[in-house]
Amino acid sequence: MIALAALLGVGTLIVLPSSPSHATTASGPPTASGSGSNSGAAAPSPTVIIGVPGLRWNDITEKDTPALWGLTGKGGAGALSVRTTRPNTCPMDGWLTLSAGQRARLVNADCALPSVPVVAPQTSGGVTPPPGGALAPGWPSIKDDNADSSYHAQVGLLGDAVHKGGQCTTAVGPGAVFGLADGSGKVDHYVASADKATAADWTRCSLTAVDVDDVFRVFMSAGVDAEGVQVPVTAAKRSEAAAIADRHVAKVLAGIPANATVLVAGLADVGVKAHLRVAIASGPAYGPGILTSPATRQSALVTLTDLTTTTLHLLGLPKPQDAVGSVWKNESSKDTAAEKIDGLTEQDTAAQAIHNVQGLYFWVLGGAQLIVFGVAALVLRRRRHAPGSRARILGGMRIMALFGGSVPCASFLSGLVPWWKAGHPSPLLVLTVLAFSALLTALSLAGPWRRSVTAPSLVIAAVTALVLAVDVMTGSRLQIDTLMGYTATVAGRFYGFGNQAFSLFAVASILTAAWLAEYPLRDGRRFAAVAAVAGVGVLAVAVDGLPAWGADFGGVLALVPSFAILGLLISGRRVSAVKVGLFCLVAAALVLLISYVNAQSANPTHLGRFWQDLVNGDAWGIVARKFTSMVGSIERLPYTIAVAIAVGFLFFVLIRPTGRQASLMERAYARSETMRPALICSLTVGVIGTLVNDSGVVIISVAFSLAIPLMLAGSIRALELDSRNGGTPGPERSEARSAPAG
Length: 742
Fold this sequence. Notes:
This protein is of the alpha/beta class and about 750 residues long. The chain contains 26 helices and twelve strands.
């Protein structure tokens, strides 16, 4: 019944159009505010891609890099996520990703500069380069390897699309050859460097790519130490390298046609640490502004895979299905070049700060909850305390449990404070999380509901669900660069629910629905209680699954059966394996329906692309990759330890009886009819979420980080009420009437 309600509700919602900001036009270059638009009959302006591997926004200054500074001021600027198939992106990975429009790689190779291309009269593998052109060495093996990778990247896609459209390519520098090569590895025209290009070379073809590798070369020259770690490059040497690169960029700008569109991309990392890189677009379609992309739905953030789609769009060519990126769009802005650079540099600072503390955060969160659980185990199973002392101890433990349950929500609320602008951002981030946790804990105990078994926990669960829901419905601003969200450098996701956020949202929604149903149940209104569960369930599935909001594939598969089981338990009906299987089938049908509808849009998300892969017969590869990741998640020690601790605490402290006394959970069950369904369905959504998501054990460990503290708080309150009542458990309604104020 609940699953059917969810299906009907979400089925109605998915036919609604997505937000206009998530759509792009089907043909012609994107129009920047105030820059006019191109007529459909007009020939596309030339497009020039300048790849500067390793270039960051703090490399650009008005004095040392005037050409790049000028482009930043008069064009659109954004932070470029360059993540490809491994944590750090090498120049060859970046150029091949441009070629494929999908994450690509040069496997089993050092992170070095691209190889020198083959030019006539030389041949490679029996293939002769075109006159005046070049051939990418080792192209057949590169092509086969990427086609067989988990991303099935089709290198040569960009070059083939340009040739199919009757246009030609000019590559300046070795890396550009790998970026523009067609399926056979050929580019039409080749120049060794920008210094050797003539005026005719810059106007020969509609698409030109230029390899400016000076920044990366300075790191190559520094080398690595005995352990393979990049030897630090001084600020002076890096600044000098950026200045040299800028002079090459200036030569390109001086030679290209006045109506050309210039796309600058810092398309690779230097060393093993990933950073956000430079993205600039300047030309007829890109006036002064900030770049964004439907692929990220974040202001001032674009991806490397967008570069291919943007190039084809500017050339008036259709986007191949294998290209996954979106067109760079320009949000009009009056910011100066200096203001843009400062803001984009801060964006990278935030990403680095999160990266530095994210792993430690989970260790600290897990360790702190371990301490709380351990202390709770000792206190709750020991009965020899003076009455007043025991009451104070139980009260303190309850506050600690509520505080622990509020930390996950606080980690997202910390995004409301610009902590990354501080001189020491990491300590301020920690203090911000603690402050929001204290605020949420105080809110949960601020009113008359503090005397209830479930209400304080309900407050924290409801606020957690509401914060996450509002966030994904308004652009996922709190998801990006937060401790339990995602980061632009990792680039696993840029909008909607990440796996950790989904886990929190799912459990918070389950707990909210269950504990809200408590109130009509007290008055015997079971139908109203089931209706409350159904209402929360439909909203939760819609928020999680709709492409315009949560865009979460696995989340729908977990939420629908979990809410359906919760509805059955609240209604008093029996739950059987057959019913659970039916609910899972409904969930699968629903997520396929969402995927199908999304696949028809101009810019499908990964939900729509899954339907396309299903139609093309490629979906099994995606399923296999996610299953492998799920199994491999067991090796993530912090999460595996957290799960083991939580399961042990559930059994030995909350569920196992204490001598002749009932277990803590039994005491809570006696005072709250919805406590047992809440726990069962929280475990259900965690287990199903673990099985259907590539994060695997991360899902259930994060679910426990919210559910166990809130369950503990309710159990402690039940024990407090029993102690006041002479150890006799009873329903919360009667106890609430006799409980003393305060």
